[in-house]
Design brief:
Blueprint (H helix, E strand, L loop, with lengths): L1 E5 L14 E6 L8 H5 L5 H19 L5 H17 L4 E4 L1 H5 L6 E4 L5 H10 L5 E6 L9 H6 L3 E3 L4 H17 L3 E4 L17 H9 L3 E7 L21 E5 L9 H18 L8
Length: about 280
């Protein structure tokens, strides 16, 4: 196997697929914290200043109609820079799994924090146009709303599971048929520990209905904790590593129950590998 460690400058460029190629991204061992984060080392000031600076910049582009796929990738990559400048150590494995599949896919995994929503586009959008299944309220806010709406998301209310399932299956299939991949977190909310009983089969059902592969993703992102009042304003924990791992594609013509078990097993096994708490079902 030929392994290539991607650098920051590679992340928003198209990487051609080669059989047997393994693509990984890892924060350089000698990466130093920014001067601002070093000055305010006991606080999260540098992180939150950088975060809101990027949000306002993206919002302006969205309102101007210029927040396209390339702009989204660069914005996401700057959030990745910000995390690393504030002490984050990131490792992303299995990027080649995304490139190896032609056409749109469903990407599904656990949902731990807001970090993955901001960082995943760095590693996906240069290979495939994507959108997310999101909570409807995120599309209406004056700050995040213009950004979210510009990404043509699938918005669900999170109050009626049956209605949400119908929306995801109908709207998701439309996006996939038009060549756009869909990221789904089959949990009702973000949690730092993982409860397999709350991990539903909506992503597998969508992939099966649209006839596209499903790529599992396991995430350890509690570096950026969920805020108690506003989830996006949580603390950061510089001693916690950030891990993202993509798995082998699951084919839509395989048994749906089997694919759900494989997806769940992939998430659970990686979370346990990283020392994340997994509740016993």
């Amino acid at each position: 196997m030929n392994e290539r460690i991607l650098q920051r400058k590679d992340l928003c460029k198209t990487v051609p697929y080669e059989s047997g190629l393994v693509l990984t991204y890892e924060t350089p061992a000698d990466k130093k914290r920014s001067w601002l984060d070093s000055v305010f080392r006991e606080t999260d000031l540098a992180f939150h200043l950088g975060y809101f600076r990027e949000i306002f910049k993206s919002r302006k582009l969205a309102l101007n109609g210029t927040y396209d796929n390339a702009a989204w990738c660069e914005s996401s990559a700057r959030i990745l820079d910000l995390l690393e400048n504030c002490g984050g150590k990131v490792k992303v494995e299995g990027i080649e799994k995304i490139i190896s599949v032609e056409g749109p896919v469903v990407i599904a995994g656990n949902h731990m924090s807001t970090l993955e929503t901001f960082v995943l586009p760095t590693f996906i959008t240069q290979h495939k146009p994507i959108t997310f299944v999101v909570k409807e309220s995120l599309t209406r806010g004056s700050l995040f709303g213009p950004i979210m709406r510009s990404r043509n998301p699938i918005a669900v209310g999170r109050n009626n599971p049956r209605e949400d399932l119908t929306t995801v299956l109908e709207e998701g299939t439309k996006r996939l048929k038009n060549g756009m991949s869909v990221v789904v977190f089959p949990q009702s909310t973000r949690t730092t520990d993982f409860n397999p009983a709350e991990f539903n089969s909506i992503a597998v059902k969508l992939a099966s209905r649209a006839g596209v592969p499903l790529i599992p993703v396991a995430l350890r992102t509690d570096f950026w904790e969920n805020g108690k009042i506003i989830k996006e304003l949580g603390r950061i924990f510089r001693n916690r590593k950030i891990n993202i791992t993509f798995g082998d594609p699951l084919l839509p013509n395989d048994d749906s129950r089997k694919n759900q078990n494989l997806l769940l097993s992939f998430v659970v096994s990686n979370l346990k590998r990283w020392g994340t708490n997994v509740r016993e079902s």
